[in-house]
Amino acid sequence: MKTKRYRLLTLLTASFLFLGASASWGAVSFQCPGYDPGVDGDHNGDGMLRADDGEISNPLGSNQVCMHLTGGDGFVTMADGKETYIFGFSNVTGLPDDQVLSEGILAAAFPAPPILLRQGDEFYLSLTNVGMMMRPDLFDPHTVHWHGFPNASSVFDGVPDASISIKMGSTLTYYYNVVEPGTFMYHCHVEAAEHMQMGMLGNLYVEPDQNLLADGTSLNGFIHQTGFKYAYNDGDGSTYFDSDYPLQIGSFDGAFHDASISVQPLPFANMNDNYAMLNGRGYPDTIENNPLPAPVENGGKVSQFEDSLIEGTAGDKILLRISNLNVTRFYTLASPSIPMTVVGKDTKLLRSTDPDGAGPLLGENLYYNTNSVNLGGGEAVDVILDTTGIAPGTYFLYTTNLNYLSNDKEDFGGMMTEIHIN
């Protein structure tokens, strides 16, 4: 039955997209100034094209970055084995324009492809709407909303009331002048409660200028140490870390997703999530550090790339970039054995402003130590785990909402991952 439905809808949607394209709806158009597909490519494998990594001929400056996403639908596999219908984004950066529709169909990833930028970047993000393969009755537009980004103009904000939405078969290229470091997130803002519940959510974070200094050079009097990385422009090295891990808190309401694929009324008022996840997976899938096998309904396309396994060596400082894009509830995430130091919240360094008006670099650190953080939808925190004095072994990071340590009716799963200290 599933195979027949898949083939029928594939034929219907492919025909629909073809007719739509021939009716001048729009076009697939990856816009990246200076990019030559015959010469340039993603040399470091991060899914983005950077001028200063030699991936673009770079006519506009050394900080130019480009990326191409699609918006569509697909399936993911829950940790109890259930295949679940989703909406989502996929990364098609560098693909020829005439291959984007075929590659983007049924390629929705959860979470969305990660976006890693550097302070000072000029970011060109193209989004192509490939339509809903499994729901050819839907004509939903899509957007990218960079949550917390200080847009100079609303046209690229992604909120449909004040900016552009992208119809099926069309592409819009967003432009961002990246001025602030920190842990952000992004999502589709069209019919936000539905599209976010269905999975159009992704990790996004920006490295500070302080990371980009040459060894031994200074920023506001702070000397950059060899090989060090920092969460923020702290001026004193206090946000130093050895490795960082983005962790997106999220959860699905299985009944809502089932209603969507079955073309039934959506239970917005009764939305009650029963799959709690980190980076789109429930435990024990969270510690599988490879992409999960492609769901059968996806036609062989992998949809779950991001794990949540945290690894380090005793003595390391590990930065956790934790964000919550859940649409139904607050969640608490706890590390009972390795204390957390919270150094940033909602892309801001936790530091007072200097009383003389010299800015936050000379203010007082307001970091605090804790064993748990509580986040609502749209919130983010930057947490450093200091493993000095921690014995090698396996530790756990999990929600204290204990009823969410399950994969629907299957116990001992849900929003939990492991920290391996070597």
Q: Helix share of residues?
A: 10-25%
| Overall pLDDT score | 90
Give the CATH level 1 class. Mainly Beta
Question: How many individual β-strands?
Answer: 27
CATH superfamily: Cupredoxins -  blue copper proteins
Low-confidence segments, given as residue ranges, are 1-24
Q: What is the name of the CATH topology?
A: Immunoglobulin-like
Largest sheet: 7 strands, mixed
Which secondary-structure class do the elements indicate? mainly beta
Give the CA-based shape.
globular
Radius of gyration: 22 Å
Counting structural domains, the number is 1
> Cα distance, first to last residue?
48 Å
Describe, in plain words, how this protein is organized in 3D:
By secondary structure, this protein is mainly β. It has a single domain (2-421), classed as Sandwich (Immunoglobulin-like). The protein contains 5 helices and 27 strands. Strand 25 (406-407) and strand 26 (410-411) form a beta hairpin. The protein is globular and about 60 Å long.
Give a short synopsis of this structure.
This protein is mainly β. It has five helices and 27 strands. It has a single domain (2-421), classed as Immunoglobulin-like (Sandwich).
